[in-house]
Amino acid sequence: MKKQIVIVHGGNIFDIKDDFLVQLKKRKVTIDDFKPRKNWKDTLVKELGDKFEIFTPKMPNKEDAKYVAWKVWFEKLLPFLNDDVTLIGNSLGGLFLVKYLSESIFPRKIKSLILIATPYNGKENKHNLNTDFSFNDDFKKITDQVDKIFLFHSTDDKVVPFADFETYKENIPKATATVFDDKGHFNIEDFPELIKIIETLYS
């Protein structure tokens, strides 16, 4: 039986619907925004797809995400998962997994939780977002459910402040934290460091 990986992608959240419409109208684009774009998730599937069963659920309305909708859709995947699954959260996807695991008991044994450029929106509410992606800072409930935790962040990330990474690092001392200085918000095609960690976990 193949080991399993679940990758939850990123998205945007807004306090009110009008904020989304304003942002959408103001967004600057180039012609590349309308073309297919390869990213590290595609590379990971290509590199590990023969050895792992990889799930990349498309979460509902990622441009104006609501936690409740994401939770409903995510839980439809759970019956298909086995023990020793690896959960990977990219950006808002990482915040989703943090909130979910801080409030719910996952039905399977989690081999690892990997958080990539994950925003923090707990009690200190650093982003001033009064959204349903806020969580209760129950880090113990997360760490009790996960064997190993990995944190990735880049100092040149212009989307998620480095301070958010430091908050997770402080509250999850068991985590293995890796800092880069050239990966931005991880909108990259190749992520060999991540592939190596996954291969090592299951070797």
Would you give an account of this structure?
By secondary structure, the protein is of the alpha/beta class. It has one domain: 3-Layer(aba) Sandwich (Rossmann fold), CATH 3.40.50. The chain contains seven helices and six strands. A six-stranded parallel sheet has the order 2-1-3-4-5-6, with helices on both faces. The relative contact order is 0.17. The mean pLDDT is 90.
Key attributes of the depicted protein:
203 residues, alpha/beta, Rossmann fold, 6-stranded parallel sheet, 7 helices, 6 strands, 33% helix, globular
- By DSSP (H or I, 4+ residues per run), the number of helices equals 7
Mean pLDDT figure? 90
Name the helicity range: 25-40%
The tally of domains stands at 1
Order of helices and strands: EHHEHEHEHEHEH
Strand order of the largest sheet: 2-1-3-4-5-6
| Radius of gyration over all CA atoms, rounded | 16 Å
| CATH architecture term | 3-Layer(aba) Sandwich
Examine the coordinates and then state which fold CATH places here, giving the name of the CATH topology: Rossmann fold
- CATH class bucket: Alpha Beta
How many β strands by DSSP?
6
The secondary structure category is alpha/beta
Within CATH, the superfamily carries the name Alpha/Beta hydrolase fold, catalytic domain
User: Percent of residues in beta strands?
Assistant: 15-25%
Largest sheet descriptor: 6 strands, parallel
Shape: globular
Return residue spans where pLDDT drops below 50 for at least 5 consecutive residues. none
Cα end-to-end separation: 15 Å
